[in-house]
Recover the amino acids of this structure.
């Protein structure tokens, strides 16, 4: 347990010292928010954004975006680089357990997702007077499940992608596909045909629905949360199956 | 003394490549045990099998009474390990790494002391990525010792250290042994094995060719002492009759006398008796290098 906490604290410090990941994970959603807010504002719409204001729509959607960027880029690249450079080998030889290594990454992911979400919420409240979440009690479990799900996906990608380069390549492709088609880019209503089908296949689409419904007052989205839970179980199982120290 | 490591017929292959063919040895508690051999001899694979980092194909291995294949995690907690190919995150600071690795065991050493001992106090707040090769090496040794291990594996620990730092490292390793920690040292440096190790196993092509104290290996496999001097006196045929002398060769004024045991004293006395008093009389003791050459038929750097 002591190692888990020490490692988590060390990883938080390492995250802060790595400007690229900080910008990519924390600043990018704010930049999107500024651009989207500037273009669409927060007036309720009848055709797109599920009938709510764009900023109200994007607030929980960007929660999902942050979790997704951790799961597709930050975690896989981090783990692949650790394996490639022999950091995992070093940890293992000093009897660090796989649970403290992955557990610390999960905790760091959760903290980063939380900080990132609070930042965009603060910006949304100040700049666009977004409506606060209708049900915090339902948003909280959705937030936890979403973070765990994308962290598991990150563990899986980090386990199977053999090198830092491949993790960066695959991670960025997944990031952009999910961002554009998963509901964190253009409103899903404007996506038609194949684009919509691909969008429905991205984990992000369901994570966003799971986060949006409690926020916008639509209650708990059972379907979306079951899909997200399923993705979590499958990713975690595959990650455990394919995890390699070296 | 009880063996802390027992290895019997260890074998490890990677596909067609035989990394460790058939290795058997034991290490007594409290000694510095060296594994000496050229690169690719199977030393690193052997010690990785002993730490449970690799699974041997066959053979029986016991380390501190534990089986590295099935009790690896338990074993790694009580051993220290300095690996050849490993790294830390670039941006972790020296003190953070020591503090982190110390958290693995409840009875860890005080890492501040290790920081001083291994000359890293000034680099306390430096990032791993900014350390020189020698500083990284010293940090890895400190990390290997931070859990107060009963047994520590050091794989090419002085690679990348400058000569002065190597001497300091040797002294520190002796100090570790004197405190009761057993040390397994993988090296391809002859002088390191000879001056530091209580016993040495010579490893070549995945096999242990010989294992004994450096002194014992030399006495058994390269007992010849060579006495060298120069003289203008052409009449030295009588040297062959001096006790303990086995062979006399002469190239111009330079004379080489090979022999065993007290050959130097005998030759010196006879020279004085015959009125020859060379000012450059010297003796070359056989070294581990000679043993290595004799046993393997090649140098360690090949």
């Amino acid at each position: 347990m002591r190692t888990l906490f020490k490692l988590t604290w060390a990883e938080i410090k390492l995250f802060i010292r790595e400007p690229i990941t900080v910008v990519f994970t924390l600043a990018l959603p704010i930049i999107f928010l500024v651009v989207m807010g500037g273009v669409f504002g927060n007036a309720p719409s009848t055709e797109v954004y599920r009938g709510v204001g764009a900023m109200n729509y994007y607030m929980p959607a960007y929660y999902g975006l942050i979790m997704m960027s951790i799961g597709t880029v930050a975690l896989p690249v981090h783990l692949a680089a650790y394996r490639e450079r022999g950091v995992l080998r070093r940890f293992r030889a000093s009897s660090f357990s796989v649970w403290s290594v992955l557990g610390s990454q999960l905790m760091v992911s959760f903290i980063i997702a939380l900080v990132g979400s609070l930042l965009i919420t603060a910006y949304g409240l100040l700049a666009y007077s977004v409506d606060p979440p209708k049900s915090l009690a339902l948003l909280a479990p959705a937030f936890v499940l979403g973070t765990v799900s994308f962290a598991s996906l990150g563990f899986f990608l980090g386990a199977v992608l053999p090198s830092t380069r491949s993790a960066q390549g695959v991670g960025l492709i997944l990031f952009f596909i999910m961002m554009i088609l998963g509901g964190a880019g253009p409103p899903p209503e404007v996506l038609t045909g194949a684009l919509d089908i691909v969008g429905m296949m991205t984990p992000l689409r369901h994570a966003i629905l799971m986060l949006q419904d409690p926020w916008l007052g639509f209650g708990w989205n059972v379907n979306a949360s079951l899909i997200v839970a399923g993705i979590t179980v499958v990713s975690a199982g595959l990650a455990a199956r394919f995890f390699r120290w070296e | 003394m009880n063996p802390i490591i027992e290895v019997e017929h260890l074998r490890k292959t990677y596909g067609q490549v035989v990394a460790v063919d058939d290795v058997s040895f034991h290490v007594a508690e409290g000694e510095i045990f060296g594994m000496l051999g050229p690169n690719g001899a199977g030393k690193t694979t052997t010690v990785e099998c002993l730490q449970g980092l690799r699974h041997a194909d066959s053979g029986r291995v016991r380390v501190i009474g534990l089986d590295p294949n099935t009790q690896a995690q338990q074993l790694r907690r009580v051993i220290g390990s300095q690996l050849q190919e490993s790294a830390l995150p670039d941006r972790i600071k020296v003190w953070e790494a020591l503090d982190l690795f110390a958290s693995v065991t409840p009875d860890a050493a005080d890492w501040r002391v290790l920081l001083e001992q291994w000359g890293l106090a000034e680099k306390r707040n430096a990032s791993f990525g900014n350390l020189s090769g020698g500083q990284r090496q010293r940090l890895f040794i400190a990390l290997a010792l931070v859990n107060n291990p009963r047994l520590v594996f050091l794989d090419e620990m002085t690679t990348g250290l400058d000569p002065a730092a190597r001497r300091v490292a040797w002294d520190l390793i002796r100090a570790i042994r004197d405190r009761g920690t057993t040390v397994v040292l993988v090296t391809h440096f002859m002088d390191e094995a000879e001056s530091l190790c209580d016993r040495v196993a010579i490893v070549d092509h995945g096999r242990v060719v010989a294992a004994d104290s450096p002194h014992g290996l030399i006495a058994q496999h390269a007992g010849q002492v060579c006495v060298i001097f120069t003289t203008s006196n052409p009449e030295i045929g009588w040297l062959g009759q001096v006790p303990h002398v086995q062979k006399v060769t002469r190239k111009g004024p330079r004379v080489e006398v090979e022999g065993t045991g007290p050959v130097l004293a005998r030759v010196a006395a006879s020279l004085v008796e015959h009125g020859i008093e060379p000012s450059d009389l010297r003796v070359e003791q056989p070294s581990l290098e000679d043993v290595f050459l004799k046993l393997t038929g090649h140098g360690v750097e090949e």
